[in-house]
Design brief:
Chain B: It is found in: Periplasm. Chain B: Keywords: Periplasm, Signal. Chain B: Belongs to the bacterial solute-binding protein 1 family. The complex is a heterodimer. By secondary structure, chain A is mainly α. Chain A has one domain (65-295): MetI-like (MetI-like fold, Orthogonal Bundle). Chain A has 13 helices and two strands, in the order αββαααααααααααα. A two-stranded antiparallel sheet of chain A has the order 1-2. Chain A is globular. In chain A, 35% of the residues are buried. The model of chain A has no long low-confidence stretch (mean pLDDT 90). Chain B is of the alpha/beta class. Chain B contains 19 helices and 14 strands. Chain B is globular, with a radius of gyration of 24 Å. The relative contact order of chain B is 0.16. The chains are: A mainly alpha, B alpha/beta. Chains A and B meet through helix 3, helix 11 and helix 12 of A and helix 3, helix 11, helix 18 and helix 19 of B.
Chain lengths: 296, 427
């Protein structure tokens, strides 16, 4: 009976496992294997030449290959950290505002917030590159009205990456607000009523009821926000081309330049492996942290 | 009509299109040109199809920043049959067998009708891979109106004069810079620097080896550093986007940049952006550095190549179309159709007979300045790893522009990076 059950379970799982194996695991394993080879993306896999850890030594070395990769890794980390640090609190704040049942126009606000997520990135990039224009951009004109000097935005290595982060926050915050609202709907209203009877004010209710019970939603949001941020590509490719001085050169854009434009498949694969490992480490650390909090 | 005759007629009609399809060849042409220029190319293709009804040419355009990636990622038999490429990309595309060598007849025609230097930039290991079309050269562009306002009579001829002129043209309160240095676009950053370097008697690459450790190169890095330290060049006014436009172009066309070193091809962008004010723009040779003998500049060329993985019939049709497009009979008054398209953008054609055919247009004030420096221009080095070398030098020059490194550090870094990149590419 047990064997029959196992066999039927195996048969039913086989299609999904095969698809995952062929389309997800195999490419991942192939990328890992290529990272140990010297290979041009324009040649067959059979022409790949095993070089051991040479590609990894290069990408962490002191030549321009290593410098550019390490720069892109740091830029990606900063971009991800800033995006998550701004998006999550904002999404909770907007979620709380929109979720208030006694405030009119909540549905409209929810729609407006979510609409930014539906706008294609090409349109966002086109508009924001003009908004950021140092001489004629509306942002600087508005700052001028309140007596603030024009800012260089995308034209300075100091502010270019932050400008791209702001663009990302604008586009993504609506989606994460919807997630926060979904989390808020799961919190029973009776808890707030009881807390009110016990004399808890709004801040205390937020700190001791809302935030702890939103933890799982926030964990999910954080993981998705990290993955989205690490995969940033379009605004960099469309607006800054990684510049100025490589300040917006993020890993996905850099891997495309190395692996496709320069056809250095081995080096590109080594970079992709490092990106994948970094992502795994960060997401696992996040889960471990939340799990510890749950235990406490 | 008997039913058998009707059946035979129907069968015959059904068969006719089938036989036409069997001989039809579809070829595609990938370019980075603007929609207006693409329309001109499509018109030329229609003209060609009148005498070659079995060949259909479709044109597809992508932004310049995506052109090389598109060529590489869509290099299979279903990719574009013809691609317009920058000469710097050719060695690696040929090494990776993505482009086909030209048939003997085409190669013989090109070798006889184009200057030897241009033919050599379209060749690898002695074999011709592309039909050259445009040649671009760098010169100093300046705004005569801003010169007049600053009391300057003539374009600077030496670096000393250049630096003084740039200072006089700079008005920080009015958001005006004397000299515009482009950033965020490899060729836009490297080519003006290389033009100043050759005008100072130096070279980027000599005998296949980087030559950025020379005295002339050191002086060029120092010159850039000086312009930045004087405040005559503001890097935040010079960012480019994927379409090679952006703030650097906006600031020049709106009269907020006094001088820029740029190639002839941007005539059409200037005309579009400036309208009647385009008459304020003049061209002058690159100022001569302390170690230079006379004005020099750098040049580079573009060519059309054929996808080596396309089918035999497609390749044959592609070479035939390109030979016609670049031939002396396809355009107006003895010019090629390609040169007519190029001249609509202010781009210099490279075929000798085209230069003769467009003599009048090439004599306009803006373009004449470019034509005059062409004979003393030095081709940008076409070596394996050239694109990576350009991108690396771009990073170093931008770091210098933004004050992140000194001139000496920039020179040492640029040379060390160039050695490592070119050595790896040569393996």
């Amino acid at each position: 009976m047990t064997n029959g059950y196992r066999a039927s379970a195996g048969i039913m799982l086989a299609p999904a496992v095969t698809l995952i194996g062929v389309f997800i695991l195999l490419p991942m394993l192939l990328t890992v294997w290529l990272s140990f080879n010297d290979w041009s993306t324009q040649t067959p896999f059979s022409e790949a030449r095993f070089v051991g850890l040479a590609n990894f030594q290069d990408i962490f070395g002191s030549t321009s290959v290593g410098r550019d990769f390490k720069g892109a890794l740091v830029n990606t980390a900063i971009y991800t950290a800033l995006s998550v640090a701004i998006i999550l609190p904002l999404s909770v704040l907007f979620g709380l505002l929109v979720y208030q049942r006694d405030v009119g126009g909540g549905t409209l606000l929810r729609t407006v917030l979510f609409s930014t997520y539906m706008v294609p990135m090409i349109a966002v990039a086109l508009v924001w590159s003009k908004l950021y224009s140092p001489s004629e951009g509306p942002f600087n004109q508005m700052l001028g009205l309140i007596g603030i000097d024009p800012q260089p935005w995308l034209s300075s290595p100091r502010s270019a990456l932050i400008s791209i982060v702001l663009l990302n926050v604008w586009q993504q915050v609506g989606y994460f607000t919807v997630l926060a609202i979904a989390g808020l709907t799961q919190i029973p209203g009776s808890l707030y009523e009881a807390a009110t009877l016990d004399g808890a004010n709004r801040t205390e209710q937020f700190r001791f009821i809302t935030l702890p019970l939103l933890r799982r939603t926030l964990l999910f949001s954080a993981v998705i926000a990290i993955i989205n941020a690490v995969q940033v590509f379009e605004p960099v490719a469309l607006i800054t081309q990684g510049g100025p001085v490589g300040s917006t050169n993020v890993l996905t854009y850099h891997i495309r330049r190395v692996g496709i434009e320069r056809a250095q498949g081995g080096l590109g694969s080594a970079m992709a492996v490092m990106l994948m490992l970094s992502l795994v480490v960060v997401v696992c650390a996040l889960f471990a942290f939340m799990s510890r909090k749950d235990d406490e | 009509m008997a039913w058998t005759s009707k059946l035979a007629l129907a069968a015959g009609l059904a068969f006719l299109p089938g036989s036409a399809w069997a001989d039809a060849v579809n070829i595609s042409y990938l370019t980075h040109w603007s929609p207006e220029t693409v329309a001109l190319l499509e018109n030329a293709a229609k003209e060609y199809s009148k005498t070659h009804p079995d060949v259909t040419v479709t044109v597809r355009a992508v932004p310049f920043g995506d052109l090389l990636t598109t060529l590489r990622s869509q290099s299979g038999s279903d990719g574009a049959t013809i691609g317009g490429i920058y000469d710097l990309w050719l060695p690696e595309l040929a090494r990776d067998k993505l482009v086909a060598p030209a048939p003997e007849a085409v190669a013989a025609e090109v070798k006889g009708a184009w200057p030897a230097g241009v033919v050599s930039a379209a060749s690898v290991g002695g074999a011709l891979y592309g039909i050259p079309n445009e040649i671009d050269v760098y010169a100093l562009n300046y705004n005569k109106e801003l010169f007049k306002q600053a009391g300057i009579d003539a374009a600077p001829k030496t670096w000393e004069e250049f630096r003084e002129t740039a200072k006089k043209l700079t008005k920080k309160d009015a958001g005006q810079q004397g000299f515009g240095m482009i950033n965020s676009w490899a060729a836009g950053v490297v080519h003006p620097f290389a033009s100043l370097l050759v005008s100072n008697g130096g070279e980027l690459v000599a005998n296949g080896k980087p030559a950025l450790d020379s005295k002339q190169a050191g002086e060029t890095f120092e010159f850039y550093d000086g312009l930045i330290k004087d405040g005559s060049s503001d890097p935040s006014m010079a960012t480019a986007d994927a379409n090679t436009t952006g703030p650097f172009l906006d600031n020049f066309v709106s009269g907020k940049t006094g001088m820029i070193i740029m190639a002839n091809w941007w005539e059409s962008a200037l005309k579009t952006g400036m309208g009647d004010k385009f008459a304020n723009i003049a061209t002058a040779p690159i100022p001569v550095g302390p170690s230079g003998d006379k004005p020099h500049s750098i040049s580079y060329s573009w060519m059309t190549v054929v996808n080596a993985k396309a089918g035999e019939a497609e390749q044959k049709a592609a070479w035939d179309f390109l030979a016609w497009l670049n031939g002396a009979k396809s355009g107006q008054n003895g010019a090629s159709a390609m040169s007519d398209i190029l001249m609509s953008m202010g781009i210099l054609p490279s075929r000798s007979s085209d230069i003769e055919a467009h003599k009048e247009k090439l004599g306009t004030e803006f373009l004449a300045g470019y034509v005059s420096v062409l004979s003393d221009a030095k081709p940008f080095p076409v070596v394996p790893g050239g694109q990576e070398f350009s991108e690396s030098l771009q990073q170093t020059l931008e770091a210098l522009q933004y004050g992140q490194v000194s001139a000496k550090e920039a020179q040492a870094k640029a040379q060390a990076d160039a050695i490592s990149i070119l050595e790896r590419a040569a393996k």
